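Journal club prep, notes for RB
We'll compare a predicted complex against what the paper describes. Inputs for the pyridoxal-5'-phosphate case:
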Amino acid sequence: MIYLDNAATSFPKPPEVLEEMFETYSRMGVSPGRGSHDLAVRCEHYLQKVREEICDFFGGKSPDRVVFTSNSTDGLNTLILGLAEPGRHVVSTRLEHNSVLRPLYHLRDRGVIEFDLVGFNPEGFIDPRDIAERIRPSTGFVVLNHVSNVLGTIQPVAAVGRICRERGVPLVLDVSQSAGVVPIDMEAMKVDAVAFTGHKSLLGPTGIGGLVLREGLEVRPVRFGGSGGDSSNTRQPMDYPFRLEPGTANVLGIIGLSAAMRYVKREGIDTLHDREMALARALRDGLASLKGVKMYCAENLENHTGVITCNVDGLAPGDFAAILDGDFDIATRSGLHCAPLVHEDIGTSPRGAVRFSFGPFNKADDVSAVLFAVGEIARR
Ligand SMILES: Cc1ncc(COP(=O)(O)O)c(C=O)c1O
């Protein structure tokens, strides 16, 4: 099977990630606990070490402000619900995934906030000036997708960060598609919070993700429960990270995430990105020479990740993906990719398109196989 659905979940994982999960969890798979027995304390120290690695990876300043979550969706809900104050306004974009859009719609339906969504140009990029124009005195925060999961376009975050910092509005960044293939430095980019997921280009397992928060950003807890200490308190402790981390941590996932981030660092983010882009360019060039194939925002692959989205004339994207899978053993993702507004704006609603997304273990032969398959399908 040729796996080209890495933007959904990267597969396979580096073998050393799986080995380290088995080995470390065999020794230390217990409830982390600050004032508890030796093994629990060791596990707590291990988590603290991983918080330091994550903080360093994203250019954060304080490891205590690294919060483990289940994935980006969980982290974005925690941030959006925890930052939203009644009567405030939010600025976001039409590039967002439903993990941002749905919490925003939910809050607006309940009369808590209003929001504006800025559009993107025909190449798939937002204009930071549009964000500046939408910021009002009542704007509580801006939330932005770093890399579109449909188009693979890398957004001009540093310019948005400068605008937000000048206007005193926190910037929340969804780095689901960028972490691991695009360098992220929260300080340099003037980002106040990132939400990441472990199972995409960070090459870790599913079920683990996190937040990195800037000192001074106050996020109200939106879930409540045990925190391993101060148990007689009827309120959630307000110290970070425990304020936003009720319940027992996903220790197995955290071990995998740590091993995966070390793998990414050792291989090099730029090297991994260059490798993906070489395959994406070859696919784009090959598809461009086939009659009846239409690609979206792939003309210029500068500021892009290894994602190519396309359709074949006269063929529903669901059928296109099913033929690729059934007849050619090529795994892709079709439909709206949980980003319905992107498809509205590129003219592919309601059926969407087919997305090919590369990972570190794809080879040039995979591109040849896809070009052969799409050529056959378009000819038929
Ligand atoms: C841009 C973007 N944001 C958020 C998510 C949600 O990630 P998860 O399902 O890991 O929570 C995804 C996953 O497809 C994504 O591509």
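Talking point for the session: The longest strand covers residues 139-145.
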